[in-house]
Each structure stands twice: as C-alpha cells, then as structure tokens.
C-alpha cells in the first residue's frame, strides 16, 4: 500500500468539499443527531491515524481508542469520506440484515474497479439474489460432499507431496486454494497456465488497497494491467468451453451453471474474477494463521493431532478423507472457529445508508458510508472472554455464537463459508498426520493492508512417516 500523497488529497475536487459541507449542513438543518466522533483534518480526515494504527502489532488500535472516547458506534472520516464505524455486535447484525432495504454494499473504488462491474460483490437487487444463490448452489454441503471433497482432498495431498525442508507456508497455501478454486469454477487441473494466472492474480489483489488512480500509484497501475491479462485469459477459456458445449461436452462446474443462467461472456468473466478473489486469499491466509496459532499453542496442537491420528487409525491404508471423516472432527472445528475469530481476514464490511437510519440514540444520515467492523466485535472483551487469546476450547462452551460473524451475515453472507471450512479441515488433517514442523524464523502478524504474517510464515517441515 502506498501512502496517499498529500497533493492528491489536497487536489480532491472542490465539488466534493461543497457536497460534504452541504450534506453536513443539511443534516444539521434536519436536526439529525449523528453518532459522535471526530472527522479530523479537512479532506484527509483521520486516514493517516488509521493507517499508522494498523501498522502496529495491536490489531484494533484505531477502533479501541475511539470506542473508549465515543462508544461502540462513532463517526470518523477516512479515505476521503465521512464514515460511521460500528464495533457493536447488534448494530452490525442490523446493518447486514438490512442489506437492500436500509443499506447497500459500497466497496472502495480500488476494489470495485479491479473486481469488475458485474462481480457479485457489486451486484444489487434481484440480480444479486439470483447470482448469490447460484454461487451457493455450487458451494453448499451437498455439492461439497458429493463432488468437491474428492478434489479438495486430492489437490491438498498432491501439494503436500512436494513439501520438503524450508517452505513459505503462506505461498504454499495460496497455491493450494488457487488450484481448488480453478477446479471448482472451471474444471481446470493445476498446470503451468494456472500457475501463471495465479501470479497475475497476486498483482490484482495487491492493487485492492491503493488509491485507484494509475497516475499516482505504480501498484495500482500494475494491478489494472494484470486484471486485463486475467480477463483475456478467462475470456479464452469461456469461449473454448462454449464451443465444447455446443458439441455436447458436459462439465459439472460453476462455469456450466453460469452458461445455463443466460449471462453473457463479460458478465461471466467478471463473476469468475471476483469468485477467485473472494475464495483464494481469504482461505489461504486462514490456513497459514491456523498453523501459526497452533505452533504458538502446543497444547492445542497436541489435542488436534490426537483427533486426526484417531481418524487415520480408523481409515487404515485409505488416504483420502470422506465426508464422515470431516464430520468427525469436533476439535478441528473449534480450531477453525477460533482462527477465524482471531485472524479476521475480512476485518469488516462497507455499506452505504440508502435512507436516514435510526441506530441506538443516533441517526445515520442517508448517503453515509458505514463500516461494520467484524474484528472489533470478535476482539471485544464484552463479547468473548480473554478475547485476544487463542483458545479453541472456548468453542466447546459457546452455545449461541450470535456475536461470531467471520463470514458476514444477511443476504450477502459468504457463499463459500462451508467450502472454506472443509478446505481448512482437510488441509489441517493432512498437514498434521504427515508432517512435524518448526518455525524457520520469527514472524509476526500484521494487520495492514490486510491481516497476514510479515514474512509469509517460513517453516521447516519434516515428513513424520519417513525414517532417518
Ligand atoms: C476463510 C475464508 C473466507 C472468509 C473469512 C470469507 C469472508 C467473507 C465475508 C465476511 C463476506 C461478506 C462481504 C460483505 O458482506 O460485503 C464474504 C463474501 C463473499 N465470499 Fe467469502 N470468505 C471466505 C471464503 C470464501 C470462499 C472459499 C469463496 C468461494 C466461493 C467465497 C466467496 C465469497 C463471495 C462470492 C462473496 C460475496 C457475496 C455477496 O456479496 O453476495 N468466500 N466472504
């Protein structure tokens, strides 16, 4: 992420200032009581405070200090816009459940340009409902059980077969999740083409957190060029598959479902781009952080090992995991939950109020940007005891996980939530039953621009089944 150049911020158009001033004074005239807070310096707002806070090792310094000062719902001004932040579980649920009625999704320009205008993240109304349920129908439990699990298991094992000595876990996990997603979406097996496409994808994702002006940001310029190459490559695949389809070749993947849904090629490619983005980085980072948390908590690792060795014993010579095996991993699910809670790969979601919305004693004025922070709730001491400690056992006691929303909620709830859980569980199973490992270097969690480890988590692996 490049810091926002001062000159750029100062050159934000006069019309924006006038618009904001007009809106504020209109709100005042209408006697609206917005959530309390500070909007910082003119134009820049509190953007620099937010960026420098997230560059520390503390996961929530920006929100923590404001919650103490103003309460769990407060106003700030970041990335060129006045924004209402919510660190309150009930308010977050309300915001997410009222998608399309009181709020609509509103992503920063950089992300919107890179995922494409036909992406699920940007769709609204009935088209969004239709495409969301189509995506769900390709990632629900039945499909995973009957169809996807075999590939997940096979591709995870195939990758682990190549591991030896020092590896960068984050890189290896990214390879795995990219291969899984390509297989699910397009029935493409790993090959040189897919690895090249993945490298282009990494450039696209790097552009997500830049100012979306190619002139000001080299990273953003590179991301836009990489996106062009990605869409060209995917257009080619879509065209070839249409020809195959006309010849009667049938495939059971997301692309086949999209052909049946009357989308044109531009729409299909944007959807594919966004599905690859949504599933690839999130799941691989969660895999890496699960291993880091377990390495740092030996008692949890030992209990997890026991669970998986038990499964292995029952299966005898058969290596491939089946659905019943996945369903007999209760402690693994505790580890997955706790990793999702503590790592918060998607720290929160952006929305825009489409009308004045009353929340607590305040009104969020129509047109306001809103950020529902999932991380603030997951790390709030009032929601989880010792909230900042990795404690998978807590999930053996939690009966109502209402404050736990790593996959969002409401009509935009992540359609890949079950798929991510299965991929994580299968990955942990094969990792734990085949390898022991130690960290190769000290590495630490960082929270900006996204949650990850600073050095991509280098570890030294040793195959437990090879003697000597
Ligand atoms: C650990 C892994 C994952 C996490 C933490 C995660 C988290 C989330 C969250 C919080 C949202 C809600 C965004 C919003 O409300 O604006 C979301 C949406 C989405 N996720 Fe995931 N996700 C994960 C894995 C996946 C996978 C594997 C897929 C692949 C199918 C996927 C596909 C999507 C899509 C397409 C959306 C947009 C839904 C919409 O706007 O209707 N995600 N994800």
From TrEMBL:
Q: Which keywords does the record carry? A: Heme, Iron, Membrane, Metal-binding, Monooxygenase, Oxidoreductase, Transmembrane, Transmembrane helix
Extract the Gene3D superfamilies matched here: Cytochrome P450
Q: Give the molecular function GO annotations.
A: heme binding; iron ion binding; monooxygenase activity; oxidoreductase activity, acting on paired donors, with incorporation or reduction of molecular oxygen
* Cell compartments where the protein resides: Membrane
- InterPro entries membership: Cyt_P450, Cyt_P450_CS, Cyt_P450_E_grp-I, Cyt_P450_sf
Respond yes or no to whether keyword Transmembrane is given for this record: yes
**Entry similarity comment:** Belongs to the cytochrome P450 family.
Name this protein carries in UniProt: Cytochrome P450
Its encoding gene is what?
CPD
């Amino acid at each position: 992420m490049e810091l926002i150049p001062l000159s750029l911020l100062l050159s934000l158009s006069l019309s924006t200032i006038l618009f904001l001033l007009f809106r504020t004074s209109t709100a005042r005239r209408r006697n609206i009581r917005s959530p309390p807070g500070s909007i910082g310096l003119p134009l820049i707002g509190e953007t620099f405070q937010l960026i420098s806070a997230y560059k520390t090792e503390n996961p929530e310094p920006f929100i923590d200090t404001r919650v103490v000062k103003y309460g769990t719902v407060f106003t700030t001004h970041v990335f060129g816009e006045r924004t209402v932040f919510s660190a309150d579980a009930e308010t977050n649920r309300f915001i997410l459940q009222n998608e399309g009625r009181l709020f609509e999704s509103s992503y920063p320009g950089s992300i919107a340009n890179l995922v494409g205008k036909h992406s699920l993240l940007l769709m609204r109304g009935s088209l969004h409902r239709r495409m969301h349920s189509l995506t769900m129908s390709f990632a629900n439990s039945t499909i995973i059980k009957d169809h996807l699990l075999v590939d997940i298991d096979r591709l995870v094992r195939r990758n682990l077969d190549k591991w030896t000595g020092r590896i960068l876990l984050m890189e290896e996990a990214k390879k795995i999740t990219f291969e899984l997603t390509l297989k699910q979406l397009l029935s493409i097996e790993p090959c040189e083409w897919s690895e090249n496409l993945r490298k282009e994808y990494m450039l696209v994702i790097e552009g997500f957190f830049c100012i979306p002006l190619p002139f000001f940001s080299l990273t953003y310029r590179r991301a836009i060029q990489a996106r062009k190459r990605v869409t060209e490559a995917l257009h080619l695949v879509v065209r070839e598959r249409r020809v195959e389809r006309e010849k009667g070749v049938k495939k059971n993947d997301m692309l086949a479902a999209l052909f049946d849904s009357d989308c044109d090629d531009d729409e299909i490619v944007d959807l594919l781009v966004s599905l690859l983005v949504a599933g690839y980085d999130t799941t691989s980072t969660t895999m890496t952080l699960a291993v880091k948390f377990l390495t740092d908590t030996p008692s949890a690792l030992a209990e997890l090992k026991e669970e998986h060795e038990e499964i292995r014993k029952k299966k005898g010579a058969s290596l491939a995991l089946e659905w019943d095996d996945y369903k007999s991993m209760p402690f693994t699910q505790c580890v997955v939950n706790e990793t999702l809670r503590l790592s918060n790969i998607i720290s929160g979601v952006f929305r825009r109020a489409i009308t004045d919305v009353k929340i607590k004693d305040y009104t969020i004025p129509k047109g306001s940007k809103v950020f529902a922070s999932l991380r603030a709730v997951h790390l709030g001491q009032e929601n989880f005891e010792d909230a900042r400690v990795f404690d998978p056992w807590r999930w053996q006691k939690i009966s109502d996980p209402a404050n736990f929303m790593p996959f969002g909620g409401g009509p935009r709830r992540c359609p890949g939530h079950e798929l991510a859980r299965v991929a994580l569980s299968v990955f942990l199973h094969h990792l734990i039953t085949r390898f022991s490992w130690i960290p190769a270097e000290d590495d630490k969690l960082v929270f900006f621009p996204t949650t990850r480890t600073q050095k991509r988590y280098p570890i030294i692996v040793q195959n437990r089944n090879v003697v000597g």
